[in-house]
């Protein structure tokens, strides 16, 4: 029998003269057809051309309109599900640090404010003049790769105000995630309607809605589909030549990936190494060298975003106290397989299941729960498992899908007692919350399902209907209850109380006055049992001219003097604060067992009776008498 396809670069010379050769597609693809077989005419071929539209693959101009529709639909749904359907609601932040789990939202908002005041500029040292009084807050000691995100948030703050900018930043990141998933799926030749539905599912992942503003850097998972696209190329040896256009684009993308959250960069590099390791046994060293280039580009992006930290280390030495991790953190915040399957406690239908599960688990992990894959994600994971098992038991056995190996690796690395815990036991404890890799698993199984569904022979109407149904199910299943007007109003009251309190302070204090804050809380990541880690930043969000003691970077001498201060009796502390130039003492009542009533009596006993109380009564400020010739704190207090 004559072979149907030939891999030669030209028609073979030993073919039968009675056969005809036709060039098809790329050079080297020839079909040999016996002379007895009728060949289609040009007109027939043109008529057959529209058949290809039934299974459209790759991006085209029409996709721009579909992306625009996806953006509009995502924005509309986001505004509805977050309750931001009015101008007044947009001026209330999604989170304000008033709950135990969203304390980091205050820090994110503060970083947007820093960027708006031109004190947070990518690549440059970040010395925040209004924090860490009487010194400044050196945020360069705390390495972060998301400088671009906060800088862009600062630009939005200048345009729309701080809280509207914070809300918009979360929305933009979710929109971007859906769009990037759509583009990736189309580059993988998936049908547009399945890519569109996948973009909705991925953009509204329960992961994003649970993280929200307090973990806005983790909501920036938009690039994960591109990560998996690159990993797929290297795992299948489809990167092309090292000097080819595709590989150069991959290097550029890898550099951008290195500038994103370090958790995502870490898993991207691991999966890249895994794919190169597999191809090494088939293709030799070429894929290994290509993977090394990808690693180099990502590492370059990471260090580029931390050039200010590196400069600070060279100038002032390393600050080992700025980031403190322990092995216990690794186990408490590791991924558990059940977390992927159990819905959150606030689920509209299955919330009771989540409440029962999270009430009896011994490892609470991060709150609120964010690992739930959703019904569609679970179905896609089950589909992948079935396909993998069928391939294993087939005779002869077939290779597992690439996605199965990727999911297995993420689980092996992230789960309790996994490879990350092994690394932590050996002393490397940087990645303390591997439950965050659930978003990688969701992206992997969704792309797997979208590719499989695109290969199904369904007419367009049926495909559109099923894709629309999937998008509807995802929006119902993965989104939390819509905030009520009363809940938004409750947050607005807290915001207004802080705004009035800050305004009252600025009216009574001279411009540039310093305020000492109690209880003393280390910065960063230094919560007390009753006060969130960054609660002291709430006044900073609303003031323009005051300087606050909170924000001195732990591990540096600029923060050590506060610890020394806490060792002395109350009158000595007040005298020292006045000598350092502080004009007021701010007290959060929640930081003291007696709601600081004893402290307030101590102020009055010393003659300090001028007090400004917050409208909500949860904090107050006592005015003291700063020295006209203040000194900087250093050494022990006399």
Account of the 3D structure:
The chain is mainly alpha-helical and 638 residues long. It has three domains: 1-39, no CATH class; 62-91 and 142-478, no CATH class; 492-623, no CATH class. 53% of the residues lie in helices and 6% in strands. It is built from 27 helices and ten strands. The protein has helices spanning 42-48, 62-81, 87-90, 104-116, 147-160, 162-187, 192-203, 206-211, 216-219, 224-235, 245-258, 262-283, 286-305, 307-316, 327-332, 337-341, 351-360, 374-393, 402-414, 419-425, 438-455, 460-478, 485-508, 538-542, 557-565, 570-580, 597-605; strands at 5-6, 19-23, 30-34, 127-128, 137-138, 514-518, 547-548, 582-588, 611-613, 619-623. Strands 7-6-8-10-9 form a five-stranded mixed β-sheet. Helix 5 packs across helix 6 (162-187), helix 7 (192-203) packs antiparallel against helix 21 and helix 19 (402-414) runs antiparallel to helix 21 (438-455). The radius of gyration is 29 Å and the shape is globular. Residues 1-56 have low confidence and may be disordered.
Note the main attributes of this structure.
single chain; about 650 residues; mainly alpha; 3 domains; five-stranded mixed sheet; three-stranded antiparallel sheet; about 55% helix; about 5% strand; globular; disordered N terminus
